[in-house]
What does this fold into?
Amino acid sequence: MLLEHNVRPDSNDMLGYTPLMAAADCGDYEMARVLLEKRADPGLKENKEHNTALTCVARSGSESTVRMLLDQNDPRVNPDAATLDNDTLITLAAKMAMKEL
It folds into this structure.
């Protein structure tokens, strides 16, 4: 509903956390898809730990949402982007036992 009233899909809180990161954290495939359709930027990093939507979703364990982000062929999606703890998509996928990735 908010997106229908021109709320920016990249609105963020004081830590830089975006709605796409929140959807990713929950592994909410459908919400992430809608936000991407509304041109949410999947490459933004939050300020505290430098997570992106991709690192958030890797922590959630939702392989289908990880795949959707990667399949966007969006140059802003960087699977090598590292958090402050030096976690990347591949290290997080290994920690979460995402065997298909």
Remarks:
- Helices lie at 19-26, 29-37, 53-60, 63-71, 89-95.
- The CA atoms of residues 45 and 52 lie 5 Å apart.
- Residues 2-95 form a domain with the Serine Threonine Protein Phosphatase 5, Tetratricopeptide repeat fold (CATH 1.25.40.20).
- The mean pLDDT is 88.
